[in-house]
Amino acid sequence: MKCHNGKKEFRCEECGKECLSKKLLKRHMGSHSEDRPFQCDICSRKFKRSYEVTKHKKIHKGEKNHVCDVCGYATMHKACLETHQKRHLREYMFKCDVCGKGFFSSFEFREHKNIHTGEKPYMCDICGKAYTSKNSLMAHKKTHEPDAKPTEKVHECKMCSKSFKYRKSLLVHVKSHAGEKFLCDFCGKAFSTKDTLKLHRRNHTGEKSNVCNVCGKAFSVLYTLKVHQLIHTGEKPHTCDQCGKAFTQRSTLVVHKRSHTGQKPYQCHICNKTFVSRTLLNLHLRSHGDHAYYKHSYSVVNWPTNGRKDQSERQRKRSCRFNRNESQPHIEERRGSLVCEFCGKICSKRQIGVHRQTHSGDKPHHCVICGKTFISSAQHNSHLRTHNTLKEFKCQTCGKVFALNRRLQIHMKSHSEERPYTCDICNKRFKRSYYLIDHKRIHTGEKVHECDICGYSCIQKVHLVNHKKRHFNEYRFECDICSKGFHTNTELQGHKNMHTGDRPYQCDICGKAYPSKTNMMGHKRAHHPDSRQDPKRYQCEACCKSFTYKRSLLLHIWSHTGESKFLCDICGKALTSNETLKAHCRIHTGEKPNVCPVCGKAFSKASYLKMHQLTHTGERPHRCNECDKTFTQRSSLVIHQRYHTGQRPYECHICSKGFVSKTMLKTHQNTHNLFSPNSSP
């Protein structure tokens, strides 16, 4: 009876809310406390109240006892079902007097009104940025967390294999396959949701309810207004990580990045010319005539495989191909075994089904706790033990803990010096058999994994996965000093040594130390070529110069072709790589971050500083093998050796005289300019 007749005498000191009883007030005060005494024994998540833990555990069990009798929607909580059923009947408790939208709770209603009033009561306590809703603030705060991971796309469409973060997004997408459409009564255009239909109808009615408070310009869509307001504030939140150029819209940034990667996904169906954006393609189609433009028959090529259209199409075609193979098998039987028609691997009748899924990409076994997917039930069951079993198996060498004894035994091989697997071609030894299999592909030249964005091919699948992340700048590790991203912890530690000055990797021949293993191996190749195991396998067809790495060869080829993708926005000079562009820009800015600790002289490049420091130490590491003369720089030694060999690679185009260096040639050519009749006195 108190809820009808009693007065609300108990007031919260924090927020002013009134409660009917002291018990309810005490329960309410828990919402202000940071204490979370109740913990889930599966995922260790903490809660303020005991019933919240009980509800949460149903997520791990997958229990959804409450089912909607209208649409079949299932949920774990009865309250969620009651709220859902009201959506079918449009029984809203609150209604917005501005736009007429309905809400079930006063909290949702108040947050919605903030959109109309422009009020942003939720402020980030780290950077001070404000938001209209609490959900937007919580999503923003995750960007400040150092270990924040992007939400996994766990909801997959069974028809086209496209993945989504939220179930609601998947349901909206499924309607596009099911043919469930909302038709515009003006032009007959079909839409998959009622909201997109409402936005479209404004094109016919001319309704523009979103007005800019600075210039008075009106827009039909709220998002378009927000983008427009950035013009007044001058804010450009989307920055290119290659050249630093900033944009107001993310879509503009995506198109701009294609100028760096060389990706042109839109192709003309008439002349096969490709473009970075659909707008440029439409402009080009007009050059073929109006019939070509209105036909809009273009194709999309080289699209990134993160759930986009061509990936779904390829997977659909691939699944159709597998279905054909089931009706018309091309699997050859050999002594009770089956041979895979795609890779030639011999499998048992029991294993062939699981093996073929490695080609189709199908992972039907889904972990209900973390959302990870697996090809076989055995892998799935093994993974479930990591959630349910305590990690009891500890490595005595490094202290690492494992859930399974089998995984501990595999890990122990990393500490052992034993290498039982030997390559029969080059006698190189390995700890594990699959390392040897991957290594042998180096000799055969087999590169089975290819990037569908840039054509890069590699031997191991893990290298392809890491390579694709570089296209989308998906880094697992980030330096807390300069914010540079890395894909492996080894790369991060090597980079951090450059900040701290540590040099743990020492050359076993001359004793020189380096911050990373890569730098040390590069040193051994340059100064101790006799100890080098990998020869320079990549040769330039234009000048016959050889390189150890394919990337070095590609950068070198650009110097012949004149192809330069990185342009200086100050002087327009074209550079072959982003690193050389950064070094070049320091000429304009005057930035010299590399300072000599002895005399204080500053340099724009670290290599210049290293050469300068030799003047203080007196060290001359480059020696001529003819006359024993020493030099501080290798380039000086190369020029000096030309006096012994008689080589004169730089020739004057006027008098055909040869010189040992480009500098001497330029000095000589000035004598022609000085005595020419057209030269000024």
Keywords:
681 residues; 3-stranded antiparallel beta sheet; Double Stranded RNA Binding Domain; alpha+beta
Account of the protein in words:
With 681 residues, the protein is an alpha+beta fold. Among the domains are: 29 residues, no CATH class; 58 residues, Classic Zinc Finger (Double Stranded RNA Binding Domain), CATH 3.30.160.60; 40 residues, Double Stranded RNA Binding Domain, CATH 3.30.160.60; 58 residues, 2-Layer Sandwich (Double Stranded RNA Binding Domain); 171 residues, Double Stranded RNA Binding Domain, CATH 3.30.160. The protein is built from 25 helices and 46 strands. Strand 9 and strand 10 form a beta hairpin.
